[in-house]
Amino acid sequence: MEERLQKAIAKAGIASRRKAEELISSGRVKVNGKVITEMGFKVSDSDEIMVNGKTLKKENKVYYLLNKPRRTICSVSDEKGRDTVLSCFEGVNERIYPVGRLDYDTSGILLLTNDGEFANLMMHPRSHLPKTYHVTVSGVITDDMARLLSNGIVIEGKKTLPADVIILERSVNRNRTVLEITIYEGRNREIRKMMEYFHTEVTRLERIRYGFLDLGNLRQGEYRRLRMFEVRKLKEMVSQSRPSE
Fold first, then answer.
1. Structurally, what CATH architecture does the domain formed by 63-126+216-240 represent?
2. For 167-190, what is each residue's pLDDT tens digit?
3. What pTM value is reported for the model?
4. Could you tell me if residue 25 is left (phi over 0), alpha (psi between -120 and 50 degrees) or otherwise beta?
5. Which CATH class is domain 131-210?
6. Selected catalytic residue, list 47, 103, 115, 143
7. Which end of the chain has fewer CB atoms within 10 angstroms, the N or the C?
8. Residue 20 backbone dihedrals phi, psi, to 5 degrees
9. CATH homologous superfamily for 3-55?
10. CA–CA gap between residue 126 and residue 129 (Å, rounded)
11. Helices (H) and strands (E) in the chain, counts
């Protein structure tokens, strides 16, 4: 069975499909010894693919759910020497990487994989998977503020998609509010910016659900492999999602 070259590279876990296209267009990919720059070029299992001079090895696809600890970096390495999420995966042989990001001080659900196509699908702007957070802020969020968040607010010139907002705890005396917020987009630091809109500061942030997945009994730093039916269900949720008008 033939497939496009960029898809074959993404499936091998080398890069996302978009990054694979960049590698191809820059002349860094060979098929059977010949440099290929054509995006529509198709390959089969019998073809030898080389990326940056190294033969592509077809490795098994793996998918992990990690309860990301606070004060870890969502990266495969860090120039400042800080712990990355990969430090939680001793003994895992596949070259996995995070699907999207959580901030340094944010904990909770993070997916990691070596399947570039899957990662790209999950992170695509049109992928409106619900992501739910427990948010603790220094400040008081009123019911009117919560309604504004639910309807969408303008951040950096663009209105956020409607969100589901539940106030779990509110204390005027302690100047503290705890909320559960479900968002349907993946803008950078969106939850923190939503809170900054109301001049409140996030003191604790945890992602507790990703699509239909939750943390279960995982403690911070613990992980489990996703089952294939879970991977399929995530893909189905993405294909069924539609951007809000």
1. 2-Layer Sandwich (3.30)
2. 999 999 999 999 999 999 988 899
3. 0.78
4. alpha
5. alpha beta
6. 103
7. C
8. -60, -40
9. RNA-binding S4 domain (3.10.290.10)
10. 9
11. 6, 17
